[in-house]
Amino acid sequence: MYKDKIKVNNHTYSVALNEQTQMYTRKLRGLYQQGYSDVDSFDEISSEISNTVNNLLKRSVSPEVREEDMDGVIQHLLKGVDKAKKNLA
């Protein structure tokens, strides 16, 4: 497990990058891609994206992420998982 601190909009969050975090980020990336390629199912995919984001933030970040910081935190998580994978390779 890899732990890090990130700062988004002058708020500091602790992030735990573990297998569960990686699983949620892979799922989120897949849902994003599916949302772009299958516009007809957007409502369905959007709901699943929301659930995945909530689970990811709940299990990987503390304290609870402020709504205005969510996009920035998600971007940090996606980049952090990529960085962690490169370091393991």
Give your account of this protein's structure.
The protein is of the alpha+beta class. It has helices at 19-37, 42-60, 70-88, and strands spanning 2-8, 11-17, 61-62. A hairpin with a 2-residue loop joins strand 1 (2-8) and strand 2. Helix 1 (19-37) packs antiparallel against helix 2. The longest helix has 19 residues, at 19-37. It is globular. The two termini are 15 Å apart. The model has no long low-confidence stretch (mean pLDDT 89).
Estimate the helix proportion, in percent.
Answer: 55-70%
Q: How is the main sheet built?
A: 3 strands, antiparallel
Distance between the termini: 15 Å
What is the averaged pLDDT score? 89
What is the number of beta strands? 3
Spans of at least 5 consecutive residues whose pLDDT stays below 50 are none
Number of helices: 3
Q: What would the principal axes of the Cα set say about the shape? A: globular
In the sheet with the most strands, the strands line up as 1-2-3
Find the structural class using helix and strand composition: alpha+beta
Hey, roughly how much beta strand do the residues contain?
15-25%
| SSE order | EEHHEH
Radius of gyration: 13 Å
Oligomer: single chain
